[in-house]
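Worked example 3 (structure in, sequence out).
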């Protein structure tokens, strides 16, 4: 059974940083595009970032570009999201996802597996 387990969420003041991790039990982790999405209270799910199989290509939502960095360690079956200069509007539950397509999709329906999410709260 495939499992994606996120960690690293918490409460931080505006301007602070957090690093999220997502450990995947995928046997062929290095063949999956990995993505991060978030859902804020009362809002739809939003694409945050995606990274290619090798880590050589990345894609970001405009709202996080320049502040967030996605990376992966295929030897550890783990993807990361480094979040700097956090803002109150970044408050959400953050989910990691794994997709079989090579395209760095921002469409959540193209991802095959999802984690349970980790809460990030940014206070002003």
């Amino acid at each position: 059974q495939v499992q994606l387990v996120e960690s690293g969420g918490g409460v931080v003041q505006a301007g602070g940083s957090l690093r999220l991790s997502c450990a995947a039990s995928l046997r062929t982790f290095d063949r999956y595009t990995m993505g991060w999405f978030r859902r804020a209270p009362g809002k739809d799910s939003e694409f945050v970032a995606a990274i290619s199989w090798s880590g050589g290509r990345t894609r970001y939502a405009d709202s996080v570009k320049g502040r967030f960095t996605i990376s992966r360690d295929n030897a550890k079956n783990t993807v990361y999201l480094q979040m700097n200069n956090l803002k109150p509007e970044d408050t959400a539950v953050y989910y990691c996802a794994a997709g079989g397509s090579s395209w760095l999709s921002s469409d959540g329906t193209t991802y095959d597996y999802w984690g349970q999410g980790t809460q990030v709260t940014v206070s002003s």
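Notes: The chain has a mean pLDDT of 96. The radius of gyration is 13 Å.
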